[in-house]
């Protein structure tokens, strides 16, 4: 006689239950952690044991399972490490959840711009020369996203060495690279990161929403990270979701890398085959000059004369949903659920679509997402809680935004709370809004914006 309200009865073979026709197939597998997989006192310590097994598997000291995705992990990590008015160096290719972490923590961002490839217009990692951990405020941490959305990766070992020489904490959003932890020394912890968040549901096999935040070393206490996780967590987590993280870990360890070897070879072959399609370039370590996620397939298409957005729409019509697309690129995520057959079918679909859309080659039109240079006026937290007024977007140039304008995908904001509205940002928002969903702004049309009613520049 306790929650959940469905009493875990819809997974049985009992006589018809309330709303059986609508509910049974949807909620039959839902088991809560408290009063389901474990008792109300967590006497079995099943979650605690599973988290330690994950930590051991990825070379961490401590891990916490999440059912709020890597979004929860990024917010928890920043809330655990920094504090109001503490400065944090943060990669501008970071997901919107990192911005949310700045609101929760009150930290002051010093944005780090990635190196942009001169030919392909995509980020190719954060360079140490772009980072200055000194400043008017104590810089406690560096927050880096690796792999980036397009699959490019930063040299985390070098960045870790830089941070640790200053007794700063390296936080890595490895949402797109959970599989890297199971590929020898390619994971973020193996390269020296202190706090790492990974999505188990992206290139691995966890339920949607599942992720893990973990730490290694002495710079962040397990209790401190746990406080951040508990601050952002539901008190009624689904054991079904949590168990899928543990089952994924076990499956990977039992497989001992065989599946990854098969899929990585298939991705390598797919990149080669895609690059044989006239006008298509599959981005890889050789043409980008940086390390690339071995399970990401990103193609560059201006020479085909069409756009990535058009290719994406045609692929969707064929039942192939890609991760994201913009004018120049199409981004596709491969996982351990794929095999040489599904990856080969993807190549065939791309070839057929490009053939049907082919036109005269055009000049590249790099996405503004990767090239925004924000002008921070006040902290994201100050802007978020400020008094607001609404203006038309073009009339707001020179004002300070209280909200995010975030093309989704990839979920990297063009404009965030506390940043000045500039003509360049307005143009980028208008262009992006014509080809993708503009998320997290109060006006879905992106025609108006809420700005700070009264700003005293700091």
Secondary-structure arrangement, i.e. CATH architecture of the largest domain: 3-Layer(aba) Sandwich
- What is the CATH C level class of the largest domain, in words? Alpha Beta
Quote the average pLDDT.
94
Rg for CA atoms = 23 Å
> Ends: how far apart?
56 Å
Question: How does this model look, in words?
Answer:
The protein has 458 residues and is an alpha/beta fold. It has four domains: 1-27, no CATH class; 46-255, Aspartate Aminotransferase, domain 2, CATH 3.40.640; 258-357, Aspartate Aminotransferase, domain 1, CATH 3.90.1150; 372-452, Orn/Lys/Arg decarboxylase, C-terminal domain (Ornithine Decarboxylase, Chain A, domain 4), CATH 3.90.100.10. Helices cover 32% and strands 15% of the residues. The chain has helices at residues 20-27, 46-58, 69-81, 96-105, 156-165, 222-232, 239-255, 258-274, 285-288, 308-317, 340-357, 380-384, 423-433; strands at 62-66, 87-91, 108-112, 139-145, 169-173, 195-199, 211-215, 281-282, 296-300, 324-325, 329-333, 388-392, 406-408, 437-439, 448-452. Helix 3 (69-81) runs parallel beside helix 4 (96-105) and helix 8 packs parallel to helix 11. The chain is globular, with a radius of gyration of 23 Å.
In short:
The protein is α/β, with parallel strands linked by helices and 458 residues long. Helices cover 32% and strands 15% of the residues. It has helices at 20-27, 46-58, 69-81, 96-105, 156-165, 222-232, 239-255, 258-274, 285-288, 308-317, 340-357, 380-384, 423-433; strands spanning 62-66, 87-91, 108-112, 139-145, 169-173, 195-199, 211-215, 281-282, 296-300, 324-325, 329-333, 388-392, 406-408, 437-439, 448-452.
């Amino acid at each position: 006689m306790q929650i959940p309200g469905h009493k875990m009865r819809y997974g049985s073979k009992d006589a018809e239950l309330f709303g059986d026709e609508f509910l049974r197939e949807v909620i039959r597998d839902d088991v809560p952690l408290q009063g389901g997989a474990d008792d109300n006192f967590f006497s079995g310590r099943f979650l605690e044991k599973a988290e330690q097994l994950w930590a051991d598997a990825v070379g961490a000291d401590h891990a916490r399972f999440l059912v709020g995705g890597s979004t929860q992990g990024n917010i928890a990590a920043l809330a655990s490490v920094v504090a109001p008015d503490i400065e944090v160096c943060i990669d501008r290719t970071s997901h919107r959840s990192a911005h949310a972490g700045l609101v929760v923590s009150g930290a002051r961002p010093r944005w780090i711009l990635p190196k942009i490839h001169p030919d392909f217009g995509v980020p190719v990692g954060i360079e140490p020369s772009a980072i200055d951990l000194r400043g008017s405020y104590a810089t406690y941490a560096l927050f880096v996203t690796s792999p980036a959305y397009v699959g490019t990766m930063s040299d985390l070992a070098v960045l870790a060495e830089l941070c640790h020489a200053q007794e700063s904490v390296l936080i890595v959003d490895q949402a797109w690279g959970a599989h890297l932890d199971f590929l020898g020394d390619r994971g973020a912890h193996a390269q020296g990161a202190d706090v790492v968040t990974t999505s188990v549901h992206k290139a691995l096999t966890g339920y949607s929403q599942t992720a893990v935040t973990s730490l290694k070393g002495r710079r962040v206490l397990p209790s401190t990270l746990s406080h951040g996780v508990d601050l952002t967590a539901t008190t009624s987590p689904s054991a079904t979701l949590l168990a899928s993280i543990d089952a994924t870990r076990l499956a990977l360890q039992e497989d001992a890398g065989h599946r990854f070897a098969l899929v990585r070879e298939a991705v390598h072959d797919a990149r080669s085959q895609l690059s044989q399609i006239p006008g298509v370039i599959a981005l890889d370590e050789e043409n980008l000059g940086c390390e690339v996620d071995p399970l990401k397939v990103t193609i560059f298409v201006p020479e085909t004369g069409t756009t990535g957005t058009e290719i994406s729409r045609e692929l969707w019509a064929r039942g192939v949903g890609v991760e994201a697309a913009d004018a120049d690129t199409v981004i596709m995520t491969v996982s351990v659920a794929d095999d040489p057959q599904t990856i080969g079918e993807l190549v065939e679909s791309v070839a057929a679509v490009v053939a049907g859309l082919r036109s005269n080659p055009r000049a590249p039109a790099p996405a503004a997402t990767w090239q925004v240079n924000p002008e921070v006026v006040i902290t994201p937290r100050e802007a978020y809680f400020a008094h607001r007024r609404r203006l038309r977007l073009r009339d707001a140039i020179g004002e300070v935004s209280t909200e995010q304008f975030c093309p989704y995908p990839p979920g990297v904001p063009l404009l965030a709370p506390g940043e000045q509205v500039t003509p360049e940002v307005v143009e980028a928002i208008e262009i992006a809004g014509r080809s993708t969903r503009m998320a997290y702004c109060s006006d879905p049309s992106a025609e108006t914006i809420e700005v700070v009613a009264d700003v005293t520049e700091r």
